[in-house]
Amino acid sequence: MDEYLTLFVNETTLYNQIVLGSILPEKLWAPFPHFVQGWLRSYIAGTLLYLISGFIWCFYIYHIKRNVYIPKDAIPTRKAMYMQIYVAMKAMPWYCALPAISEYMVENGWTRCFSRISDVGWASYVWYTGLYLIFIEFGIYWMHRELHDIKPLYKYLHATHHIYNKQNTLSPFAGLAFHPLDGILQAVPHVIALFLVPTHFTTHIVLIFMEAIWTANIHDCIHGKLWPVMGAGYHTIHHTTYRHNYGHYTVWMDWMFGTLRDPLEDEAKNI
């Protein structure tokens, strides 16, 4: 078992060397404990991913494709976007505690993670990843819904995110503009799943960081019309009604639990 757990430690050590070693002199990060190195790597990688993807996304849809995807009067102000970046950057150090803690638990053998796809085979890998994603979808749906339904949670946590409640206040940068505890709670299903579903460790790391891309996507107000994906068209409705479309990747949970509101049906009613 100890030999197998070393595989996880070696993998996170490699990630530390790639990210930290590319940006900082080794003498600045190598003396830190492995856990702190993991947190620092997540912080740097998460910040770069958020800022770079957000700036590219905004430049494309607000400048290169100006008035193509979004009407001029629906483009958020720079002040609104700067405020979203400010809120997200304040929360980022806290967000990055979650992957650092999940890596620590994996490296100590507390979870059901496996290191190599060959350990279970491709068929089992696909099956387990599907179960992982279903659990994530279910967990985030209910976590998000309770952040609305439980009044103190909404007032003191989730309301920070819902000040962006009109199309001209939403942007890709709003995707991570949460109260720190709110953002962590909505990502917790990713970690709980590790105790319930055999999960490929690298896939878990990739998916948890891809949240930055996904949340940017669903806050850009561009309805992709790709059923059953819970795209920006659905999530924009969530930001304006507060009572619909709590789902994350797909519409399934909202459909099952009666909270789905389709943007195409809304458009048809307005014609």
Short description:
This protein is an all-alpha fold and 271 residues long. It has helices at 2-23, 26-29, 34-64, 78-95, 97-107, 122-149, 151-156, 180-196, 201-217, 232-241, 252-257, 263-270; strands at 113-114, 199-200. A two-stranded parallel ribbon has the order 1-2.
Side by side, the strands of the main sheet go 1-2
How many distinct beta strands?
2
Radius of gyration: 19 Å
Helical segment count? 12
Provide the β-strand percentage band.
under 5%
**Largest sheet: number of strands, sense, barrel closure:** 2 strands, parallel
- H/E series: HHHHHEHHHEHHHH
- Provide the helix percentage: 55-70%
- Estimated structural class: mainly alpha
CA-based shape: globular
Mean pLDDT across the residues is 92
Question: How far apart lie the N and C ends?
Answer: 63 Å
Give start-end ranges of low-pLDDT stretches: none
What are the key terms here?
single chain; 271 residues; mainly alpha; 2 strands
Give your account of this protein's structure.
By secondary structure, the chain is mostly helical. It is built from twelve helices and two strands; from the N terminus they run H-H-H-H-H-E-H-H-H-E-H-H-H-H. A two-stranded parallel ribbon has the order 1-2. Helix 4 crosses helix 8. The longest helix is centred in the N-terminal third of the chain and has 31 residues. The radius of gyration is 19 Å and the shape is globular.
